Amino acid sequence: MLNLVLFGPPGAGKGTQSQKLIEKFGLIHLSTGDLLRGEIFEGTALGLEAKKLMDEGTLVPDKVVIGMISNKLDANKDAKGFIFDGFPRTVAQAEALDELLISKSSSISGMIALEVNDAELENRLLLRGKSSGRPDDANPEVIRKRIKEYNNKTAPVADFYKNQNKYTSINGIGEVNEIFTSICDVIATWLK
Ligand code: B4P
Predict the structure, then answer these.
(1) Cβ contacts of residue 144 below 8 Å, gap of 6+?
(2) Domain ranges of the chain
(3) What digits encode the pLDDT tens for the residues 49-67?
(4) In angstroms, what is the span from residue 122 Cα to ligand 1's centroid?
(5) Does domain 2-184 have CATH number 3.40.50.300?
(6) What is the tens place of the pLDDT at every residue in 152-165?
(7) Which residues hold ATP (predicted)?
(8) pTM more than 0.90
(9) Positions marked active-site
(10) ipTM, 2 decimals?
(11) 116 CB less than 6 Å from ligand 1?
């Protein structure tokens, strides 16, 4: 089973690369950002709780996102593998994911981290904000808050996978297809 954690700060290109990876490898895409936006769209209690936090650039509580991922793993028992996009975002989420996968006799194949500097992230998100309608992309202050949350709470997740020898970082700046090729090269080493 191929289980990839696609990692990087907000706007690094995780969603963009995930779309290409699901086509090539036939994996199930689990984006906690997309799942949360789905809950908001449907107006669920969970969505209402998440919206306030997301709009201000704060992470949603671990318990909420871990529960969503657990449900999705259960609903896709026959999957060839998963791309985890935007999850895990805290060390507690990473530990929970390991436990969920162990209970299914599976494990993470590796993490690929997309490296992009803060100025480029801010530009990309502001640009997307012009057309996406996402409140968290429209405001430079909220974007900076998201990057700060990433540095404080999410960056340590990289160490979690480094300690397991499952971490690779690649340059996330450049043509989307070039970055995709770099990701595929890393995955090829796992499949050998
Ligand atoms: P997410 O939806 O995960 O949002 P993201 O980090 O902004 O997206 P991504 O990195 O995928 O960017 P993309 O490819 O789209 O999270 C939103 C919020 O949800 C969080 O702030 C948090 O509140 C909450 N949340 C989600 N998961 C959570 C969790 N596990 N725990 C707690 N809270 C959670 O790229 C961005 C832009 O760049 C696009 O416009 C794209 O076209 C462009 N782009 C991509 N690649 C490019 C390239 N190579 N060159 C130029 N532009 C590029």
Answers:
(1) 57, 122
(2) 2-184
(3) 999 999 999 999 999 999 9
(4) 11
(5) yes
(6) 999 999 999 999 99
(7) 11-16, 128, 174
(8) yes
(9) 14, 89, 128, 134, 146
(10) 0.86
(11) no
